[in-house]
Design goal:
Helix content is about 25%, strand content about 30%. With about 350 residues, the protein is α/β, with parallel strands linked by helices. It folds into two domains: about 210 residues, Alpha-Beta Complex (Quinone Oxidoreductase, Chain A, domain 1); about 120 residues, Rossmann fold (3-Layer(aba) Sandwich). The strands form four sheets. Strands 3, 5, 6, 9, 10, 17 and 18 form a seven-stranded mixed beta sheet that branches. Helix 3 packs across helix 9. It is globular, with a radius of gyration of 20 Å.
Length: about 350
């Protein structure tokens, strides 16, 4: 298969609104030693796309600073962390048998080798991503899912949302028979948490709102409480014996309200701040009950391997909310920002 010299791509030219998204023709990247070239079949959107574009991550000591996920972004940058596609070329030192295989790319850039390495960068942020017809990736970070029953769209939804969810569940040590609380349950990570926690044999109590409640229940939540009501009261009624593990992408006031509802030795895992990053809670509820508050950023290589095993067996069924062509990246991001959907938004380059 011959690869063209140029490709269509959407990149950000700076921090700002959707006006900084630029549709352009750029050279197809050449895979370097140890890399492969992937023809992108589908790329999923994430909140990280919005926050990277807006520069909304802040800096240590300056939470209101305009910054990317791990500091300054090199512009222009092709966005898009979540890629499913086909390997069409390999760089030096990579086995040619990968060519033609259907793959999912682990978008994390890790701080070291080994299965428990920490993510310190992200494709689409610290290196160019999948808002394009082609993307390069380390051969170690592409996972062969040719035999998976999932569609390309479904596979593309997995890396960030399901990787983040599995990282939270692993770090929170959620076990069979335990009760899990899932906040923000209608979003990409929230639905993933419901799916994986349910597959783990946990009892899932989810927080959602309005018309999305039925969709969250259909995704597998045993109980769904309305975030517009008295959350603590509803939680006490839904889980009178308490919560073992909170899987929280909202934070804000929920942490202070919910921490007293943890059982002895409970774990509160935070991987987002949709409800606000300035958190206050009664620290006595932490140390007197041997509770833990755990930060969780994405996944490790070991977590991602577990996720790909689930994908190959079709044990998760991601929900696709909408699809867009690459040319409508701005509209796709605006749809994501409105948060009116359930599941994931996918683009087709």
């Amino acid at each position: 298969m011959s690869t063209p010299q140029f490709m269509r791509a959407v990149r950000i030219t700076g921090h700002g609104g959707t006006e900084v998204l630029e549709l352009t023709d750029v050279p197809v990247p050449a895979p370097q030693a140890g890399e492969v070239l992937v023809q992108v079949a589908a790329v999923a959107l994430n909140n990280t796309d919005l926050w990277t574009r807006e520069g909304a991550y802040g800096l240590p000591g300056d939470p209101k600073a305009t910054s990317g996920w791990r500091g300054p972004i090199d512009f222009p940058r092709i966005q898009g962390a979540d890629v499913a596609g086909q390997v069409v070329a390999v760089g030096a030192g990579v086995e040619g048998r990968l060519v033609g295989r259907r793959v999912v790319v682990d978008p994390a850039i890790y701080d070291s080798e080994g299965p428990d390495a920490n993510p310190v960068g992200l494709m689409g942020s610290e290196r160019d991503g999948g808002y394009a017809q082609y993307v390069t990736a380390s051969a170690e970070r592409v996972h062969d899912v040719t035999e998976s029953p999932l569609t390309d769209d479904q596979l593309a939804t997995l890396p960030t949302a399901y990787g983040t969810a599995l990282g939270m569940i692993e770090r929170g040590r959620l076990g069979r028979g335990e009760t899990a609380l899932v906040s923000g349950a209608s979003g990409g990570v929230g639905i993933a948490l419901v799916h994986i926690a349910r597959a783990r044999g946990a009892r899932v109590v989810a927080i959602s709102s309005g018309a999305k409640i039925d969709a969250v229940r259909a995704a597998g939540a045993h109980e769904v409480i309305d975030r517009a009501g008295d959350i603590a009261g509803q939680l006490r009624a839904a889980a009178p014996e308490g919560i073992d593990v909170a899987l929280d992408v909202v934070a804000g006031e929920l942490v202070g309200e919910g921490l007293p509802l943890l059982r002895e030795g409970g774990r509160w895992v935070i991987a987002g701040a949709l409800g606000g990053y300035d958190v206050t809670f009664d620290v006595r509820r932490l140390y007197l009950h041997n509770a833990q508050v755990i930060g969780s950023a994405m996944h490790t290589p070991a977590h991602f391997g577990l996720l790909m095993d689930l994908a190959r067996r079709g044990e998760v069924q991601p929900v696709i909310a909408a699809t867009f062509p690459l040319e409508q990246a701005a509209q796709a991001q605006e749809e994501l920002a409105r948060r009116g959907h359930v599941g994931k938004i996918v683009m087709h380059p």
